[in-house]
Amino acid sequence: MPEESKDNNKEEKVSEIKGSEVKAIEVKEKQKEDDNIIFVGIKPFMNYVTGVVMQFQNKGQKEVIVSARGKFTSKAIDIVEVARRTFLKDENITIKDIKIASEQFENKEGKRIFVSSIEIFLVKE
Known about the structure:
Blueprint: H1 2-34, E1 37-39, H2 45-57, E2 63-69, H3 73-87, E3 93-106, E4 112-124
Parallel strand pairs: 1-2
Antiparallel strand pairs: 2-4, 3-4
């Protein structure tokens, strides 16, 4: 009888391992989906331009999304234009879509504020 409980424990552990492997695979697939999104922030300008260029040239992406919020929206536009006109001029990269939105937050004082956001979809044709 004790041998049966050991076998059951082994089966449970195996099923737990398989379940965690499935979760790991799902996480990796999610990361692959998000791999083509560049989030613009406080890093130097050319870091983002290089990121866009590398997505198209080294990783072979067909679509890259440049996303920014607040004061970084104008920086995102500049990044897209510099990447397209300077580094990717021979790649035939076009702007497929531009989405703008506004998100509502409450700041520390409880005041309602709105933050603008932009997503620029670049496509290699």
